[in-house]
Amino acid sequence: MIDGKTRTCGLIGNPVEHTMSPIIHNTLAGTCGHNLVYVPFPVENGSLEDAIKGAYALNILGLNVTVPYKSEVIRSLIEVDGLAAKIGAVNTLVRTEGGFKGYNTDMSGLHRAMISEGIRIEGEEIVLLGAGGAARAVAYLCGEQKAKKVYLLNRTLDKAERIAKEVNGAFAKDVIVPMLLADYPKLPCGKYLAIQGTSVGLFPHDEEAIIEDAAFYQKIHTGFDLIYKPFTTKFMKLVTQAGGKAYNGLKMLLYQGIDAYELWNQVEISEEEAAHVYHALKTAMGL
Ligand code: NAP
């Protein structure tokens, strides 16, 4: 029950109406017995700085940040966690003495999701599809987690080249190899972990996949699609048809939320509690 001691967390972005984050955090507050509510806060363009100052003045415990503010928010923070600073994108703000500190739990959440599915990055040869905001964070994760090689394929080559330069510079290693998406047949022979980070195949375009050619999927032992709506994407279907294992991005969403919740409340969420929230997310999706 909301009372005089209820703490508030929330999501800032524009738009925020589609978010599933309230399900994650309000379910966790219920299972953990925390007196906390999580609400979406739409923030108009030009009002971000005021929103952060206002949130701090209102004793808000923590915030998630979504599109289009993940980079812009940094200048309103008192401190930024090491890897989030490297990436230049923050999705979680934690209240500290004098201001908010920024973290990137998109990336730690993806890593935790992969660990929970038994997928490793270290020593792996990876095909990363896309060079937008999400793929950029994945490229950093691959660098940090010591992937052997990451072929970064994008429709617009210069975006892939820019990310490769940044990540290779950040980790002082030529781990990311930028390529044009259409050049996928030139991938060296081998078996890859493929991470699908484009928006192709996202609901309502369920029948689209970033690469349709079955020959590509013969090279993939595991496919991880960051998309979770639809629950089984065309990319995932093509991976499994070729004999690989396929996963969607719902656990990434789950664990980015859990990581944020843990930071705000200084708690550790058990795998049982995580499973309970995952079930709540699936129910909300009508699954
Ligand atoms: P973004 O910054 O807009 O990037 C979009 C990417 O998709 C770019 O690489 C773009 O290529 C590519 N793309 C779009 N349409 C294409 C087409 N017709 N053909 C080829 N490439 C195309 O988006 P984002 O924020 O990175 O998000 C990407 C996906 O990740 C979205 O589907 C989002 O739902 C998902 N995501 C999931 C989670 C999660 O928690 N599971 C979190 C974040 C994002 P160009 O550079 O050539 O335009």
Features:
6-stranded parallel β-sheet; globular; alpha/beta; binds NADP nicotinamide-adenine-dinucleotide phosphate
Structure description:
It contains 10 helices and 12 strands. The protein has 287 residues and is an alpha/beta fold. It has a 6-stranded mixed β-sheet with strand order 2-1-3-5-6-4, with helices on both faces. Strands 9-8-7-10-11-12 form a 6-stranded parallel β-sheet, sandwiched between helices. Helix 5 (133-144) links the parallel strand 7 (125-129) and strand 8 (149-154). The radius of gyration is 19 Å and the shape is globular. The structure holds NADP nicotinamide-adenine-dinucleotide phosphate (NAP). The site of NADP nicotinamide-adenine-dinucleotide phosphate has 24 residues, from helix 5 and helix 9.
Write the layout of secondary structure elements.
Elements: E1 7-13, H1 21-32, E2 36-42, H2 48-57, E3 62-65, E4 79-80, H3 82-87, E5 92-96, E6 99-103, H4 105-116, E7 125-129, H5 133-144, E8 149-154, H6 157-170, E9 176-180, E10 192-196, H7 214-217, E11 220-225, H8 234-241, E12 245-247, H9 250-265, H10 271-284
Parallel strand pairs: 1-2, 1-3, 4-6, 7-8, 7-10, 8-9, 10-11, 11-12
Antiparallel strand pairs: 3-5, 5-6
Bound molecules: NADP nicotinamide-adenine-dinucleotide phosphate (NAP).
Instruction: List segments where confidence is low: pLDDT < 50 over at least 5 consecutive residues.
Output: none
Global geometry: globular
Summarize the helix and strand pattern as letters: EHEHEEHEEHEHEHEEHEHEHH
Our measurement of the CA-to-CA distance between the termini, rounded to an integer number of angstroms, reads: 28 Å
Q: Which molecules are bound besides the chains?
A: NADP nicotinamide-adenine-dinucleotide phosphate
Helix content: 25-40%
Strand arrangement, major sheet: 2-1-3-5-6-4
Structure summary, number of beta strands: 12
Structural class: alpha/beta
Please report which band the strand proportion falls in: under 5%, 5-15%, 15-25%, 25-35%, 35-45% or over 45%. Answer: 15-25%
Average pLDDT metric = 97
Major β-sheet annotation: 6 strands, mixed
**Global Rg:** 19 Å
Number of helices: 10
